[in-house]
Structures are given as C-alpha cells and as structure tokens.
C-alpha cells in the first residue's frame, strides 16, 4: 500500500515545489517589476517637470516622489503578506485545505488580471493588486507546507525547501522584465500567469487533501486521487487521536510528571502565544525581516544612487539581484537538513541517556538560529557600504540569509510547538512581524529627506539592533540545557 501511494506523494511534492517556485513569493522580485513600471511611466506625473525632461540618463535618480510611491506599495504589500498570514492560517486550520486554496486562487487570479489591464493612468490600482497577489501567494505556501508531513524524518528539509522555493519565486518578475525588454508586453505576461490558475484548481482537487495531512502520518492515510470522499470519519478520528500523542511529544515525551498547574496550560494556544520562547522568536524574525524588506523595497533607488542614474548599470545589477534570488530554493534545504540531522542525533542521545526528547528536538534549532543571525549581520554590513561592486556580495548573502530565515522560522515552529497550533502560531508571528515591517517606509522617507540619500546612520542603528537576534538562540539553548539537567521539567 505504501508503495502504491509513493508516486502520488512524489507528484504532490514536486508540483507543490513548482507552485511555490512559480507563484507564491513573486512580490520579492519587486525591484525588477519597478524597473518595468518606470519604463511604462507609472506615477511619472508625480515627478518635477525638469526630472521628466532630463531623459533616461538621470531620470531614475531625480524623481523622489515616484520612488516613494513605489516604496509605499511594496510596504503595504509586504505588510499584508505577513499580517494576513494570521487570518489565513486560521482559515486553513478551521476550513481546511480546499477552501484555503480556492480563496488563494481567487485572490491571485484577480490580482494578476488587475495588473495585466492597468496602465500608467490607473497605476493606483497597484495598491489593491499587489496585496491581493501576496495574500494569495502566502496561502499557496501555507497549504503546501503540510506536504512535509508525508515524508516523516525529512519533514524539516521539505518545509525549508518549500520556503526556499517561495524565496526563489521572486525571479519570476526578472523573467517578466527580460521578456519585456524582448518586446513581450507586461499585459501578455500577466494574462499567462492568470491562465495558470486552471492548473492550481486541478492540483487542489487531484493532488491535495481536502482536510489536513496529519503528523505523524497514520499507516493507511490516503488523499487526493486515492481518496474519493476527502477527509472522512477515519481521518478525523486519526487527527483527534494523535493530538494527545503530539502534545506529549512536545510537552512530556517521557511522560514525566508535570509540576502543579502545568497539565492543561501547555496545551492551549494562548499559553504558547504568550510564552517567552515565542516572544523572542518574534523579535528574531521581525528584526531580520525588516532588513530584507527595507533592502528589497529600496533596491531600485539604492542602485540608482550608486550608479549615478545610469540605466544600463541599474538594469545589470537588478538582473544580478533577481538571478541570485532563484538560488534560494537550493540554499534553504541545507538549513532543514541541518535541523533534521541534529534532531535525529540529539534524540538518539536522549533515548540513551533518558533525557527529554522535546529538549533534544528544541536543541536542534539552535545552530540554525545562530547561523541565520550571523548571515544577517554579514548581509547588513555589506549593504551598508556604498560601493556598487560590493553589492554582488550583498545579493549573495541576502538570498542565503532570507532562505534560511523563512525556512528556519517554519521549521522552528514545527519543532518548538505542537502541530495542532502551527497554522495559528505561524500566522500570528508573521502578522506581528508585519507591524514591525511598516517601519521600512518612514525609514525610506527619512533617508530620502533629512538624511539626503545617506543611509549610513540608519544602517549603523539597524546593525546594532541586529545584535538582539542572538538573544533568541541563547535563550533556546539555555532552555534546552535546563530541560536536560532537570528531566522532571516539561
């Protein structure tokens, strides 16, 4: 039976990877799309007359109001990308996979059709289209992350691989830019993306469960093509019966006796949402994410300044940035592989020594958290140095760090908290970090205005704030050490 289901599971894995790679995180190729929008004269009416008359040589460098409008659209879209993850995570938990994916398809198709048929005169509709595009994309990612449950011990590797594919999908806008330069219109490209929604619909009903993929996976689990009626009573009973098993795995795998008052609280969503572990994870994610959003949202303006408005140089570096984004899907699985290997190693040691298995699983996340913080610090330092050729190194560090960030975030939540709360906790941490990401627009305005395009002081402050991210892995490590040294503590 297992062998008969393997081709279906592999097909689900590969098509899910393709879906995340081609559609889920296209927003983060924003710099490539802005280049096309500027060529199409979007928001050019905001420019001063002399900026428009100076032609292509310096026009990119002189229109502050146009840059601010594009930065505001990206700020809003990236905010919605994170903030709406909480309600969409709730929808996924409450109404299950099919409903969540149909909502995603509706939002995504509406957005791509809107972008296809707007022009410079109606460019304000980008404020509606881009958030819809990102919310649809994040729903694609959330519904695909559960596919990791089909592959047991490789779960973290697959989750991080999907997050890497989410990052790599930003290269889609590079393809649109290159096609545009070859004479294929923006409208034609987005109409093609809209037509691909038929493929999403087919995959929803043929290769995805109607409910949720449980973890651990029951022996006779079937879905999609192998299941005619979706999540019947057998699957519901399986999910319910395994909630206690999962809770015990995360809370007291050895069935240790908890301290008074702890028996019910760890099983509630509220107790996890207000825990110190979750709070510091939120700080870790928010600070690193702010760096990435600020960098991506202001990249076109940054390159224009460093290249003195040379459109050819700006185009070359924009292409280089977008190409490096594609390699996120290759970088992210290494983080998951590291976590999976360490989890297996630590849990084997825990079984031999009789220590807590939940502590062992938690310990496996510490190297990933530290490495992600180090990569962010290196990326931040390179981005702060105003040397144009150095930005190639910045692009490389940025894509590695970003692929580690989101894959590590999802994997940490699966290892540090019970899976029945994953959708809600994943949505909550993304929603709260979205509030912090709103700082990118006032920071951009500060750099463009009072600081006169000199981001040095802002970069120094943000680099110092980045040091806060090292507190999270330190506290997780200390918590692991305390659990190992006192087995009676759940």
TrEMBL record:
Membrane topology type: Multi-pass membrane protein
Residue ranges crossing the lipid bilayer per the database entry: 12-37, 70-92, 99-118, 124-147, 278-296, 316-338, 359-386, 392-413, 425-444, 456-477
A cellular component annotation (GO) from this entry: basolateral plasma membrane
Keywords: Membrane, Transmembrane, Transmembrane helix
InterPro entries to which the protein is assigned, alphabetical: MFS (IPR011701), MFS_trans_sf (IPR036259), SLC43A3 (IPR027197)
Location within or outside the cell: Membrane
UniProt GO BP: hypoxanthine transport
Keyword rRNA-binding (UniProt): no
MF (Gene Ontology): adenine transmembrane transporter activity; fatty acid transmembrane transporter activity; guanine transmembrane transporter activity; xenobiotic transmembrane transporter activity
Protein known as: Solute carrier family 43 member 3
Species per Swiss-Prot/TrEMBL record: Balaenoptera musculus
Lineage: Eukaryota, Metazoa, Chordata, Craniata, Vertebrata
Gene this chain is encoded by: SLC43A3
